Amino acid sequence: MVRRHDGFFSGGLSLQGRDMTDSITPAALREAALVSKAWPYEEARKLLKRYEKGAPAKGHVLFETGYGPSGLPHIGTFNEVLRTTMVRRAYEEMSDVPTRLIAFSDDMDGLRKVPDNVPNQEMLREHLGKPLTKIPDPFGKYESFAHHNNAMLREFLDRFGFDYDFRSSTEAYESGQFDEALKDILRHYDGIMGIMLPTLRKERQATYSPVLPISPKSGIVLQVPVEVVDADQGLIRFEDTSVPGGETIVQSILGGKAKLQWKVDWAMRWVALGVDYEMSGKDLIDSVIQSSKIARELGARPPEGFNYEMFLDEKGEKISKSKGNGLSLEQWLTYGPEESLAFYAYREPKKAKQLHMGVIPRAVDEYWQFRGNYAGQPIEQKLGNPVHHIHGATGDAVPDSVLPVTFGLLLNLVGVMGDASKEQVWGYLANYVPDASAEKYPELDRLIGHALAYHRDFVAPTLKRRKPTDNEAAALRALDAKLAAMPADASAEDIQNEVYAIGKEEAYGFASLRDWFKALYETLLGAEQGPRMGSFIALYGIANSRRLIAEALA
């Protein structure tokens, strides 16, 4: 089933706005894309070279992303589909050849262990080793465990407006779609064993087989050696070790009666479906190498693609589901909008990046900074701007609306307000933003919700304002006197000038302006970093800011 959506993320990226490339001809856009150094274009040019003589025989270029339905979709799933879609759109800007994206679910895999985050674990333990589509749904909602997680995957992809064609491994095997490719696996059995055996430990070599027959009695996916009986008929011989005493069986591997080992399965799928592009994590580099060799053994060309780096936690350690040291998709979307996550996913995909709540505010503000720059940029800079690829991932225009305040400034405002409501925040914004309202600035209204949640859960528990030193206290008293002499509607620039002047006075003993600003942040805001103080004071109000100073001096 193909999903096509006109809007982007449900969080509001489908707001009406001018397409900043409207004035650029398709020819100019294509010419600029052909030389752009932005990574989606560099990846897309691999496909131009792959089919430099014209469109493939199947009539389209096929992109694929894979998903293991033993668990629920997560932030890594989002990143892989988003990044693949960015490459797809980049290719479409340079070529008239149609494209498709398959979201493939490996739902015929045998369940190896019971996930920690699902109910009815005892029931699942009784079905260990069986294909995920043959295991009852522990949530009691769907035909099987895999059907449940596949439904979650499709709901997940639909939520973000991705254009994709969902495919189930079980359906492909059982329908016979893979039958010819499976026969070919048996015809090249010795060649595939020659590729795989040198990569395995000696004890694993003794039991390894590219083909995993499914026991006709227990329904378990068997990890046993097999003997090819008749490749053209798809027949193999094996020992069914899942039944008492074992039993020698001759059985077809066609029609869903067997599946393939992971690396062989991946290669077979590339060949059977005609996959042209698939990216994967750095942890699968070896799998890509071996699967590519197998694809060539089968007489096909492996797909193009690249290996992206994995995320790290705030300590620089590899994220582990069992450790729980990562950041979930739900957490990010609680504290920041979808486009900020897309921005973070776009930047430097081949560089290991930390993924924790502390990176969200910067990602939000940097997204808006790049979005604000987009309108005035020449075409070559537009194509290197992350927002071009974020919004282009579903064909949307880049909106031309801008924020009147930064997310960082919002966080500082909420920080000094304490337990505030959206309405109270809008009341303060009226001091700084003409005609401030949720109706006029819907994106800002959503950001206020994120800022309140971020402060409540992440900032407030660690917030601590320190007592100023003697020289800092003298500087704060001087700032208070300056503010007292200024009108209530003084501009942020005028206030900033007075803040600068005090920091530069030798009498207060600051080695640099940085020390003065650090003192302001730590004594007034309770944070090590902060906003441009002129903007903050103008936003919070002179009278309120003077109360902050009085509290610090007290």
UniProtKB/TrEMBL annotation:
Record-listed ATP binding positions: K321
Superkingdom, natural source: Bacteria
Cellular localization per UniProt: Cytoplasm
GO terms (BP aspect): lysyl-tRNA aminoacylation
Motif position, 'HIGH' region: 69-77
PROSITE patterns: AA_TRNA_LIGASE_I (PS00178)
Record flagged with keyword Aminoacyl-tRNA synthetase: yes
Stated name of the protein: Lysine--tRNA ligase
Organism ancestry: Bacteria, Pseudomonadati, Pseudomonadota, Alphaproteobacteria, Sphingomonadales
Name of the coding gene: lysS
